[in-house]
Amino acid sequence: MASSRKARAADAGPRRAVERFFGAHPELRGTRILIGFSGGLDSTVLLHALHALAPRFGYVVCALHVHHDLSPNADDWLRHCRRVCRALGVPLRLRRVSVARRKGRGLEAAAREARHAAFQSARGDAIALAHQLDDQAETVLLQLLRGAGGRGASAMPALGWLGRKRLLRPLLDVPREAIAAYARAHRLSWVEDETNASEALTRNYLRHRVGPLIATRFPRWRESLARAARLFASAQLDERALLRAFLEAHGLRAPSEARLLEMLKQLAAARPTTQMVHDGARLRTYRGRVFVEPVRDQGGRDDAEASFAPLTWRGERSLRIGALGGGELRFRRARGAGIDAARMAQSVVSIRSRRGGERLQLDPRRPRRTLKNLFQEAGIPPWRRAQLPLLYCGEDLVWVPGLGVDCRYRAARGRPGVCPEWCAGAQD
After folding, report:
1. pLDDT value at position 192?
2. How confident is the model at residue 104 (pLDDT cuts 50, 70, 90)?
3. Are 136 and 175 contacting, i.e. CB atoms less than 8 angstroms apart?
4. How far apart are CA 51 and CA 88, in angstroms?
5. What are the residues facing 312 on neighbouring strands?
6. Among 1, 2, 25, 62, which residue's Cα sits nearest to residue 288?
7. Which terminal Cβ of the chain has fewer Cβ within 10 Å, N or C?
């Protein structure tokens, strides 16, 4: 009993932080999340917590290990990461990178650039990194000591962009000691990077020398600096700068000043029918968010009402659906996740377009509900709903992108399953 109370107390930090993060961002349901997994303490806890909560929040988890080949222990770290992922049943992808030093930039910065390039090139919708409260406070302090302005001192956002991928930092408010307590409570194992102890690196000097000294007079200095970072970020992101940054993050050119003001006016109105075409892309609003999608013809017409003749799945790893903008439906084998493979083998599995009136039962304690209601609850925009492929076993609807698997067809723990993944074109 005491050990279970201890585990629940340890969960209060990382697990609740992840719950709050994904509860505040329902648009991440159905996304493929790549976790930057080094095998260290922080990324191990993030992997464990995200994996545990994936069924609840409806995302797909995959670990991504970047092998820099800078440490004599790098191969041992890779083997450790493989063991951890195998035990959890989480797929692991490997990216080997060559770290090239540049004049005026240290090895640490060069390695970070190589990692980011690997993250951007990997297949997935979002990248989750294990930065936590101590990292954030140290970053703010380091930027201030370097004389950075408000932009630099705003440090790391919890939700941002890395190229065209969403960048997630669910643990940004969790202190290091809470992360360590979680790891001990769940008996997790991790590796230690020998460079973390070297005070020759400025960040490590702040961590081992300066931080503890400040804490003797200001015990909550980390929380205070993290709060300051949020205030700096708010001051920097005025409406015009925010829209320009948003367009740039999606690879779109900045509009003229007059056009920018008109776009802001229309977006502020946030009508359900608001849409603008700019630089080959269509911008639309839904529930206070802006979505960016490609214009598929020269006239800029809305082709949301796409339909196609039913397709039969015969075990292929992927199916491309031209009528849905060339999107690809991929199938990944797993255990204890996705659709029960045996039940799929007993039926004709088909992919169909939405016709209206379909129902799905996601929760065994609740009745089957219409896709319209489920889409609204999940925050999926109306124009995307008709562009989603639906998977049937016989005449039973069993899986819908962004919603999940019907509870009657879910693979039980330890049983073979098939996890479909819908890879559409450009996303918001």
Report:
1. 92
2. low
3. no
4. 8
5. 350
6. 25
7. N
Q: How far is residue 350's CA from residue 391's CA, in Å, rounded to a whole number?
A: 6
Whether residue 301 is predicted with pLDDT greater than 70 in this model: the reply is no
Q: What number is the average pLDDT over the span 1-29?
A: 77
Q: Are 293 and 426 in contact (CB under 8 A)?
A: yes
Cβ contact 291:381 at 8 Å: yes
Give pLDDT, residue 9. 52
Per-residue pLDDT tens over the stretch 38-84: 999 999 999 999 999 999 999 999 999 999 888 899 999 999 999 99
Phi/psi of residue 340, each to 5°?
-60, 120
Give whole-number Cα distances, 398 to 12, 40, 63, in Å.
Answer: 34, 38, 27
Distances (CA, A) of 406 to 215, 354, 387, 391, 417: 51, 16, 20, 10, 13
Residues 6+ apart with CB under 8 A from 213: none
**CA-based nearest residue to 195, from 40, 58, 42, 334:** 40
Q: What's the average model confidence in pLDDT over 319-324? A: 86
Instruction: Using the predicted structure, report yes or no on whether residue 107 has a pLDDT greater than 50.
Output: yes
Instruction: List pLDDT tens digits, range 130-167.
Output: 999 999 999 999 988 888 777 678 889 899 888 888 99
The answer to whether the CB of 137 falls within 8 A of the CB of 221 is: yes
Task: Count Cβ atoms below 10 Å from residue 248 Cβ, excluding itself.
Answer: 12
